[in-house]
Amino acid sequence: MFLRQLEPRTGRTTTEVICYVAWPLAIMTMLHRVFIKAINGYITDDFKPVYQAALDFLNHREVYYANFDSVDPHYLYAPSGTLLIAPMAVLDPEKARWLFIAVNALAIVLAGYLLLKLFGYGLKSVAAPILLLAMFSSETVTNTLVFTNINGCVLLGEIVFIMLLLKRRDLWAGAALGLTIAVKPILAPLLLIALVRGQWKVFITAIGVPLALTAIAWPLSKDPMAFVTETVPYLGESRDYFNSAIVGNAEYYGLAPWLTWGIRLLFVAMVLISLWLLYRYYRNDELFFVATSSGVILTASWLLGSLGQMYYSMMLFPLLMTVVLKNSVLRNWPAWLAIYGFMYYDSWLSTRFPDVGRLAEYMKTTLGWSLLLLVIFAVLADRYLAARRQGRLDKGIDPSYLLPSAVVDRSASTPADGSTSGTAPTSGDTAVTELSESPAPTTR
Hints:
Keywords: Cell membrane, Glycosyltransferase, Membrane, Transferase, Transmembrane, Transmembrane helix
Oligomer: single chain
Region (Disordered): 411-444
Enzyme class: transferase
Structural class: mainly alpha
Helix content: 55-70%
Number of strands: 0
Family: Belongs to the glycosyltransferase 87 family.
Organism: Antrihabitans spumae
């Protein structure tokens, strides 16, 4: 019976054919990224300073002694994070690195599975192999494994936080987020979502967990104050290398400070308007609101802050998954042009056109994040203006083709020739319905 399950079969439906095509591609891509590219490594090695810090911590030596004038990867975790990663230093460096790769790869796979469940899909759906293939084909997952950093575990913490937040299990949601903050505070801006949703208990564990770990780690560290006096000031500075934030590229290309601030303030305005529209009209559509808002907040924090690196984009997978929702803001080609900029593994460095290639390579992430925020702002603003013209703001700002016909002002939405094609479901809606045994609901 078991061997019969392995018998090759011919797909009879579109869903079966896509699954038969996508699963081998997804699995082999995942194995290649883990066992070939990650094990081979690269000149950029995020793991070496982390392992050395863990070893120094276990031997009660100084941890925070990095030379921030160099461009080599630096150890930037707080004492609480040092405490969490310290046990791996009981292994030799090579075995510890392999273990670190394996843990992060498993965390990414588990995060993908939980993301499917969050949006109402299962492993038998066509969405499962497509998501796995997309994740392990991306730059963010590939370089997380190749450089060997902890972003895979951070992604898992983010997905768990979102799931528990939606289930109103606030203390556990805060604990999941708190563990990530204890290592690196990249997800700390997501506390804004808990704040506007009135889930105050999240803050108890989100703040309490890193504080408790810090209280344990502080007396065990030889130089904990060096983190405060040396590392924290460095984290607040912008740098002109390996930095896709606006200020990073502005410094590299020598933009005038007034222009840099003007661009940042323009995006601040767009982000605030986008978040207001999401809160005002979508906060009851919980999955869409939390997943979309989290993407906007995190993208803005990297683009407008002091440091943004391309592989941070892994934390945007919940936002990208909203494309399966009928009211998603990503159902347009400019959004996916933006996603190409910060997700794809392509290098644009060119030996034939070195200057243009270097510009494209260095700017693709900045432009991708910028275009993503611009698209989300434009889609939400257009929906708002359309709903206001049609006098249906009290019904929300979803596109008219998603609303009952009685809600839509026919005079405003029907073309002069009398056709009603604008209210018919698009082919994309049909395709999404075929993604799994049951389509993902758009409201929670």
